[in-house]
Amino acid sequence: MAEDLLGTHKAYKAHAKEADFFFRSYVGGKLYRQGEYLTKYLGEDNTPGDSYGKRLETTPLDNHVKTTVDIYSSFIFRNLPKRTLGALNNNASVKDFISDTDMNGQNLDSFMKSINDLAMVQGNVWLLVDKPNYAVQTQAEAEALGIRAYVCSYTPQNVLDWEYRKSVTGKHELVYIKVIESEAKTQTSVTEWTKTEIVKTLVATDESGEMKNIISQEVFVNPLGVVPFVNYAPLPSPTKGVGYSLIGDVAYAQKYIYNLLSELEQNIRISGHPSLVKTPSTRASAGAGAVIEVQEDMDPQLKPYLLQPSGSSIVGILDSVNSVVQSIHRMTHTSAVQIMRGSPMSGVALQTERQLLNTKLADISHTLQETEYAIWNLFFQWQAVDMPDEFSVSYADTFDIRDEHADLELYSKAIEAVNDPVFVTQMNKQIAELLIKDEETLNTVVESIEPAETMVHDTTTPENRTEHIQQMIMQGLTDQNMLDLHPEMSQEDIDEAKRLLLEQN
Questions:
Q1: Are strands 125-130 and 150-154 parallel, antiparallel or unpaired?
Q2: Are 16 and 24 in contact (CB under 8 A)?
Q3: Cβ distance 229 to 177 under 8 Å?
Q4: In this predicted model, what pLDDT tens digit does every residue of 150-202 receive, in sequence order?
Q5: Distance of CA 250 to the CA centre of its chain
Q6: Per-residue pLDDT, 125
Q7: Where are the beta strands (DSSP E) in 114-186?
Q8: Residue 174 has what pLDDT?
Q9: Residue 335 to residue 347: CA distance in whole angstroms
Q10: What is the pLDDT of residues 321-366, one digit of tens each?
């Protein structure tokens, strides 16, 4: 019966509704306006052309949700994951999987980034590692035909039900899942997975989307013996299969700003277009070039006038917006990487923010790494290949969160203040690491910055000592540098070389 397919997990309804709001907050634009997140004024309705509809069209969205997600993602994927494939380095299926992970042209790095962005927004993403069902006799035949495992993702809205059971080892194992594969105007495709079966059902739906009668149903054997789904949740909740959104608080703060900006637009519009107050018999209009005709003996108290708001509330609204924006930066620990309005943060506060953000990013990165391992494990099962002992996946665990402009200014001032070749060399290396992102180019540049302490200086003789000292002086070495490099020299030798150098000039 179709009614049997309507059953959902106890956490589905609330999680799906909230995930939808978070997703709209991330995408913005028309999708956000359709959510109708503006609070209606008294008397407003939602008919075409009404005041509420106009407010929806004219109110801008300051999208802090997307900004936050983009900042997190830019740090996590600044350095791409490193993979060691070992004996499978030249395996055709493995190479194809990395270059086209979802069978839609998306490589593995791009795929992991996309699901991470979505999971940070909606709380979690379900990942199915599947393989086309073709009747082939051997793995070699499958590879010859290009048949291999791939990954596709499902949002919380499309996963209706799921069940975990604790195994004998104490680990929770996914034993059942029900997903919506596709939705059309008149029918919906639903797939159910267990450890032994795959059930695909096509259900007729009415205009409201409610499922009615079953059109067709197919049952297949699950050849893998496990439910090949991975639940990726950067911040898992106590309920298995559900994750907490990393931008939930930001989305609600963004909605508050959205309503404030609507109030701001209303205040600016009213202040710029004052209302004309007049008697019914007075011929008048407002605006540039308008003419007002009144009787010569009109009572002064009845003369037309403009009713114009002071606009004082505009300043208060702007202050409220700025206050909420700063609270968003604090709750997301992005104050150190965003231009802040108002007073700058202290150095200690900025360092603390950077450490907190680094910790958050490291947690996300670790969960991503574990998720990719789980994906590879299912991939190898589908391909009937053992995971090599040397196989590894490594995501970044620390992130260089710094104010590059401030650091560059600090290094430059330090070079000017300290006239020591060794110190200058180290500062130049720091500057190179700050400005050059390509690792190969960086190594070349760093090697060219020869540190004074590693310069080759042969032992001098009384005959060449003075000349060599003068050369080192011209290179900027201090007296102590020269004495450290040449134990056979004395301070008297250096003083004498300096005296002769002065006489020559």
A1: antiparallel
A2: no
A3: yes
A4: 999 999 999 999 999 988 888 899 999 999 988 777 888 999 999 999 999 99
A5: 13
A6: 98
A7: 125-130, 150-154, 159-166, 172-183
A8: 96
A9: 12
A10: 999 999 999 999 988 777 544 445 556 677 788 888 989 999 999 9
User: In whole angstroms, what is the distance from residue 434 CA to residue 402 CA?
Assistant: 10
DSSP conformational letter for 129: E
Helix-helix angle 312-332:64-76, to 10 degrees: 30
Token output for 300:
């002064």
All residues at 6 or more sequence positions from 478 whose CB lies less than 8 Å from its CB, including other chains: 419, 420, 421
Task: Give the C-alpha distances (Å, rounded to integers) separating 221 from 58, 61, 196, 199, 233.
Answer: 54, 49, 6, 9, 29
Distances (CA, A) of 131 to 109, 139, 217, 223: 20, 12, 20, 10
Distance CA 87, CA 348 (A): 48
CA–CA separation, 117 vs 125, rounded Å?
10
Measured CA to CA, the distance from residue 228 to residue 71 in angstroms comes to 32
Residue 31 amino acid letter: L
**Given the structure tokens 């993403």, which residue do they identify?**
125
Ranges 297-306, 326-335, 421-430, most confident:
326-335
